[in-house]
Amino acid sequence: MRRIFFLLTLVLFSSVIKAQDPGKVLSSVFSEALTDRTAYNNLEYLCKNTKGRIDGAPITQKAVEFTRDALIKAGADSVWLQRVPVPHWVRGREKCSMSSSAGREDLAITALGLSVGTPEKGIKAGVVEVHNFDELEALGRKVVEGKIVFFNRPVDNTLINTFAGYGGAVDQRVRGASAAARLGAAAVIVRSVTQFLDNFPHTGVMHYDRDAKKIPAVAVSTMGADLLSKRLKEDQSLSVTLVSTCRNEPDTWSYNVIGEIRGSELPYEFITVGGHLDAWDTGEGAHDDGGGCIQAIEMIRLFKKLGIKPKRTVRAVMFMNEEISSTGGRTYADEAREKGEKEYAALESDRGVMSPRGFSFDTDGDRLDRLKSLAGYFAPFDIRDFEKGGGGSDISPLKSLGALQIGYIPDSQRYFSFHHCANDTFEQVNIRELQMGSAAIASLIYLIDRFDM
């Protein structure tokens, strides 16, 4: 009798939630998120106990197991792991010093992901500074051969959209080594791709072209870049000794972590919310992208705690290997395609967990207008930016399966002080900003599902 009463109560509570005014549901979501520390505690554990969770590293498995358990505790109806092929790049010793008329000075550097290493004793060579690929080509092989090419193009700080600034400078990190190698360069040093002047070198993936020799590639901090540029102007005979003993090991396996709430009316239509679990080994991966993963798990907890029963099946996914080659997102989409799943919508949180500003939607016409109309529900929470835009790299393969692409947009002005560097730690995350974002994401998914957006 007691069990029957409990079940009737649960059904009644779920019916009340469904019948409630959406604005009241959103208020309950934000109130619960902002008065609970589960997500913040989960992020702290992830950051402090799985630092170095770059693809292929043994510690990554601990992150997989922890997020799987967190999804179970959040109340997900089903939780499972999805096997993903991943690269295995290993960072080695790193040191860089320059010798000039000013004496010997060290520079803060970090190897770029997938770069080959130097010999154990390093490379000693002269340096040539360029700001773009045209300048490099103009110097020619006669000047470049045997030298270390220093790419020193700064991010354009006049751009209010910090991601646009990043996009305008990141090509030298990704393609600089091959461009320099074609002219006989011994190695490349790239200015960190950040708007901030600091002594944290910012890493990131680079790629080699098939027609170019593989040469070592490292990033130097922005303060180090300014100092190197200054010393070069004072002394053209300056030399740099670079040691970076990173290496590429054979590919291995890891996992996407998936948890879902089964849909009550349309269980074979799927809404995916996720972030990427891998992170560069120089930091703790709090903003990039541990926080995004924890927000997806928190969505599950909020739905369960408040008795919100989605019509469609809602999934939280911790994607593996976004930073290097995005096999996690492709594996997830490939399996969905094989199973014939109907992908309704997908949201990615991978821009840090600062205060939420809104969402971007990769659609137009009437559907975009309807999605923009949801902004009124978020105005009480000072979340106002509903705009046309992209989703994210991990969910992009789901577009071909029909999924609406949604990007979570937090305030971006501080993001690149954390991005890909040792400054990306748990201490840089504010609990209210994290949980405002969690509530915003859960609320948007609730509305899209309820109103068949």
CATH topology of the largest domain: Aminopeptidase
Full CATH superfamily name of the largest domain: Zn peptidases
CATH C-level class of the largest domain is: Alpha Beta
Largest sheet: 8 strands, mixed
Overall number of domains: 2
Distance between the termini: 40 Å
H and E order: HHHHEEEEEHEHHEEHEEEHEHEEHHEEH
* Structure classification: alpha/beta
Strand order of the largest sheet: 1-10-12-11-13-16-14-15
Rg, please? 24 Å
What does this structure look like?
The chain has 13 helices and 16 strands. It is α/β, with parallel strands linked by helices and about 450 residues long. The chain folds into two domains: about 20-90 and about 250-450, Zn peptidases (Aminopeptidase); about 90-245, Glucose Oxidase, domain 1 (3-Layer(bba) Sandwich), CATH 3.50.30. An eight-stranded mixed beta sheet has the order 1-10-12-11-13-16-14-15, with helices on both faces. Strand 2 (about 95-100) and strand 3 form a beta hairpin.
